[in-house]
Each structure stands twice: as structure tokens, then as C-alpha cells.
């Protein structure tokens, strides 16, 4: 079984990838680029899967992180992909993902400090 630390690292790596994917893209460019949309959505599903696997005790220690919303987003993206709202995906990628990264970095620093 993987550790919480590794799932948190997965989240950070996925947020970094999303940032790279959209670094030179505005809303219109995102909405008109299937490759970028697909890549971002894939990384968001990775974030959701990793968040779902973070232990409940750790999630409870950091309730400011919207764990349930993250997992719920993943479930919609995977199971109801035909109804994905790309404006919401853009908002999530461009605004929510950087905030999530900051939260997860703090969790890692607090919970798994370097020796």
C-alpha cells in the first residue's frame, strides 16, 4: 500500500503538470484545444484519485482542503465524461489547482518534515 506522502506528491506533480499545460493558454485557447483539455482533465482525475486514497485521519487533520469536492470532481470526470463542463474545468485548472498545490505543500511540510 502506498503512503499518504506519496499520494500528496502525486497531487503536487499533477498540479505542476496542469500549470505547464495551460501556461501559454487563455480561456478561449483552452476551450478550443482538445489536446490541452484532455491532458488537464486527465491530471485532474489523477488528483481526484490520489485525494480519494489519502487516509481519512490525514484528511480530517486538514479540513480546509476540499477533499470531498476533489474526489467528486474526479467521479464526474470519469463516470459522466459526456457532461463535463469545460468552463468549470478551466476554472479548476487555472484558479483552484494552484491553491490546492499550496495546501498540499503545507500538509507535506507539516506532516512529513524532511529529516
UniProtKB/TrEMBL annotation:
InterPro entries: HepT-like, HepT-like_sf, HepT_RNase_toxin. Keywords: Hydrolase, Nuclease, Nucleotide-binding, Phosphoprotein, Toxin-antitoxin system. Pfam families: HepT-like (PF01934). It comes from the Bacteria. Belongs to the HepT RNase toxin family. This is DUF86 domain-containing protein. The lineage of its organism: Bacteria, Pseudomonadati, Pseudomonadota, Gammaproteobacteria, Candidatus Competibacteraceae.
